[in-house]
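Hi all, posting the design record for the shared folder.

TITLE: backbone redesign
STEP: 1 of 1
STRUCTURE INPUT:
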């Protein structure tokens, strides 16, 4: 399994909102919303963590964008980010030398779904700043861990959506049924984190 390193949003409430966006966009995804800054590697790289120990970053979120190209199968919707000084630790060979930090919301096979999410996010001014965690290894979770993590932030999700949602019910819904919840989270972020 490939090993990646990245940043999470340090503010727990905002991180939960971003996780909820990611979950509602693609409920089968098994990682929290994050910005990948290094990888892939075949094995864990402990020297990387020593190199960046105790360093956090300012993340400047700058709206929504996509990696959707006619004739290609990639359907990725993401929040654009600027992370000052990230070039000092950036190593993503897949990006062919380009430094393009982003937080993925959706990376799936359904182009109509990706375009609907892109349009939804475009209606909101998702430009805000947040402090990051330290760079840490991004690990996939087991299904049990995924469910438990969802429950940990359940009260925050309830606050964001104004009601309790059931993880398993949402997971079984079609994307068109989840889109109104996704839009509520985007509205919550705009209303609580975007400076006017």
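Okay, here is what came back for every position:
SEQUENCE:
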């Amino acid at each position: 399994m490939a090993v990646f390193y990245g940043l999470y949003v340090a503010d727990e409430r905002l991180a939960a909102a971003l996780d909820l966006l990611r979950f509602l966009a693609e409920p089968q995804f098994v990682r929290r919303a994050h910005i990948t800054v290094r990888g892939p590697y075949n094995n864990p790289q402990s020297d990387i963590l020593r190199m960046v120990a105790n360093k956090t970053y300012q993340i400047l979120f700058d709206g929504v964008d996509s990696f959707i190209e006619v004739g290609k199968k990639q359907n990725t919707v993401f929040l654009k980010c600027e992370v000052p000084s990230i070039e000092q630790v950036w190593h993503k060979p897949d990006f062919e030398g380009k430094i393009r930090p982003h937080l993925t919301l959706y990376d799936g096979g359904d182009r109509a779904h990706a375009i609907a999410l892109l349009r939804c996010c475009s209606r909101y001014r998702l430009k805000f700043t947040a402090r990051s965690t330290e760079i840490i290894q991004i690990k996939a979770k087991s299904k049990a861990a995924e469910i438990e993590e969802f429950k940990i932030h359940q009260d925050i999700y309830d606050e964001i959506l104004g009601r309790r949602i059931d993880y398993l019910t949402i997971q079984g819904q079609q994307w068109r049924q989840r889109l109104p919840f996704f839009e509520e989270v985007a509205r919550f972020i705009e209303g609580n984190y975007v400076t006017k």
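COMMENT: The first strand starts at residue 3 and ends at 7.
Let me know if anyone wants the other runs.
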